[in-house]
Amino acid sequence: MTSMKTRTFAETSLGEQLPELSIPITVTLINGGAIATRDYFPGHHDVEAARELGSPHIFMNILTTTALVQRFIEGWAGPLASFGDIRIKLGVPNYPGDSMTFSGEVTERDEATRSLTITLKGRNSMGNHAAGTVSLVLPA
Amino acid sequence: MAEQELVDKIQAMVGREYGRVYAWDRVNAPMIRQWCEIMGIENPLYTDPEFARAQGHADVVAPPGMLQVWGMGGLDQENFPEGSSKENNFEVLKVIEPYGYPAVVAVNSDLHFDRQVIAGERLYFSSKLDSISEEKTTPLGTGFFVTVLMTYFSQGENGAVDEEVGRQLFRVFKFRPAQRPEAAKPADKQAEAPKAKRPLPGKSDDTRFFWDGCEAGKLLIQRCTDCQTLRHPPAPVCIKCHSFEWDTLEASGKASLYSFVVMHYPEVPPFDYPNPIGLIELDEGVRLIAGLVGVEPEQLEIGQRLQVEFHRFDDRQTLPQFRPVG
Which of A83, B2, B209, B301 is at a distance of 20 to 30 A from B24, taking alpha carbons? Predict the structure, then answer.
């Protein structure tokens, strides 16, 4: 993986669409993501506890969503992109059996600081799970 | 409506600051690697010390999306290392809960990074209760949005000063669920993601004729049989002569756009977004609210001509929609 290339600022353009990334939502991802983010809230790993909360199944925690947003952006930008902000707003939950597809667009681009803002959405079968913006600086 | 006593109690807490909470573990390669593994992130900056050193770092870099992870309590969400503040930065949730708001869900996380964090650093954070919304009703239920700001620091080693490494706005919704949980399903049945359906209207003896008309593909408007005044939405009494006597008129479905809104956020399933909604003036003279179809939101114009059509949704209800014509 060390051969991964980082996108240069010059290789980007305003309005550019990022390649979509589709992620299967599984019990394993929700469980594993919750524990890897040290989030032991029962609704993220215990289906009975989730049902008591009025949820049909366990649901993804926001720290995992944040990580997947980073993955989506970094997969396009490359390993040495420097993140300034990750801002997300959650909508419908991510339940097992669904899949979430990220789409994004370069909505701000500043030559002087080589910084970009990407506006993104992560959509599942019920609607938008997450929407937000990421700002990052790319090498010259 | 929320009890005033509760509103007063929680609003008085806004602005309260909460002291340092230390991370259980120094920023470390094993936790980083395990996080990358489950998240599907493959970046040698986080997992390959040689690659990280070649970029000028002392050791592997912590993924930015992991910042909050270092400060998590773990299995006991309120158990933090020696020296941490005993006060919980989300203590207000415990004040709200006994008033009948048992559930909580995270809704916003805005992370800002001042600099990269490197394996070996010891982090702590402090917090401030930034705001609490009025009582709000969402598809999830009714409750309060609670916003806490956190600032993350790296502890200076060998007399060096502590340094801010990032900030976070974290917002949760503390609420009373909108519906009772369903009965537990058999554990061996793989749950499918539920498909949202359009909400059904509440029908009464006054309004049933309208919905039944839609099912029959007719746009029916209530008409006073004493003075012939049309009225919509349906009501038991004539708005002009106060007569209780009425029948219905089948409208032509020809109309013009009196006003409109375009819903962008929040995107509530199963609707498509942006979602244009019209206040529609029928040629017969009454107005109604309905979805607009066959038009891009930016092409909508006040006064444009519309024609009704009936769409069937979820195989259980038929609704009038309006499409621009000519």
Answer: A83
Chain A residue numbers touching B44 (CB-CB < 8 A): 1-2, 4, 79
Task: Pick from B76, B110, B195, B272 the residue to mutate for testing the A interface (most A CBs within 10 Å).
Answer: B110
Closest C-alpha among A121, A77, A118, A85 to residue A102: A121
Q: Which residue among B31, B44, B113 sits closest to A83, beta carbon to beta carbon?
A: B113
Number of domains in chain B: 2
Task: Provide ipTM, 2 decimals.
Answer: 0.96
Q: Residue A114's CB: how many other CB atoms inside 10 A?
A: 17
Q: Is A24 on the interface with B (CB under 8 A)?
A: no
B89 and B157 in a single domain? The answer is yes
* Helices and strands in chain A, H and E counts: 3, 5
The reply to whether B215 and B302 lie within a common domain is: yes
At CA B271, angle to CA B269 and CA B275, rounded to 5? 135
Cis peptide before B274 (omega within 30 of 0): yes
- Return residues 186-205 of B near A (CB < 8 Å): 187, 190-196
Question: CATH code at B55?
Answer: 3.10.129.10
Same domain (yes/no): B219, B303: yes
Contact at CB, B269 and A87, closer than 8 angstroms: no
B235 touches chain A (CB under 8 A): no
Domain A9-137 class in CATH = alpha beta
Q: If you compute the radius of gyration of chain B from its CA atoms, what whole number of angstroms results?
A: 29
- Considering the domain architecture, whether residues B54 and B162 belong to the same structural domain is answered as yes
Domain that holds residue B257: 208-324
Rg (CA), chain A: 16
CB contact under 8 A, B41 and A71: yes
Domain-located, residue B285: yes
Asked if residue B25 belongs to a domain, the reply is yes
Where helices occur in A3-136 by DSSP H, the ranges are 27-36, 47-52, 62-77
Instruction: For chain B, 326 residues long, give each residue's pLDDT as a single digit of tens.
Output: 778 999 999 999 999 999 999 999 999 999 999 999 999 999 999 999 999 999 999 999 999 999 999 999 999 888 899 999 988 899 999 999 999 998 888 999 999 999 999 999 999 999 999 999 999 998 888 999 999 999 999 999 888 999 999 999 999 999 998 865 444 444 444 445 567 889 998 899 899 999 999 999 999 999 999 999 999 999 999 999 999 999 999 999 999 999 999 998 777 888 888 899 999 999 999 999 999 999 988 899 999 999 999 999 998 999 999 999 97
B43 interaction partners in chain A (CB closer than 8 Å): 1, 4, 74, 79
Same structural domain for residues B156 and B57?
yes
